[in-house]
Structure prediction request, 241 residues.
Amino acid sequence: MRLPALLFVSGFLAAQAPTPPETALTVDQVVAKVLDARGGIARLHAVQSRRITGHIEGLPSPITFDQLNARPDRIRLTLRTEAQAAAGGQSAQPASTQVKTFDGKAGWAWSNSEVPRTLAPEEIQVLDADFDGPLVDFAAKGNQVAYLGLQTFQNQKALVLKVTLKDKRIQTMYFDPKTFLKFSQVNGEGKAGVELDFWDYNEVDSLPMAYTVIIGPVSVRVDKITLNVPVTDADFLPPKK
Prediction:
């Protein structure tokens, strides 16, 4: 896979303070620098909600998505596909809308053609409702983080953190040693691992965020990110009958 071409905001690199040699850093120092690169722990904690809209490329049918996150660890993900006319021996497909939510305790899924059902625990895991990500307050969340040092990944140097989540899932994260921004992550281990590459960093209210995530042949493209949007409890519950 070709090297991600990260787009950093003007002046970001120049603002980075000198850092100790990578081999001398401790896990706490690496995590602190990663969180500072994301805007700092105080500013991250100040964000109460987030809406991300975009589209997914590389699938048989184009998909748009609308993801709403809010503290504490609530999420609503809406996926929409447009109607497809019959072509090439394939039958016509109607437009569809699929929704999955998690309110912090329970999750549901429904669509324009299916009534709400309760999500299984493994489906909730896939939703990944952790608002700040596993590195923020990792010890309090029951996550374990190990610093694996400076390695070469995708033909570039990377600071590597291995995160063992409370539920025992493994995430290996790769960070640029100059900017401390994540450019890749592998979920799982060995042949079962799934690689995600993060491209096109842009600032949202002065917080750098990736606008492209590559997962194999699939590209998740963000069109807009809005922070501190209004939310209600009903946003994360299934529709009333």
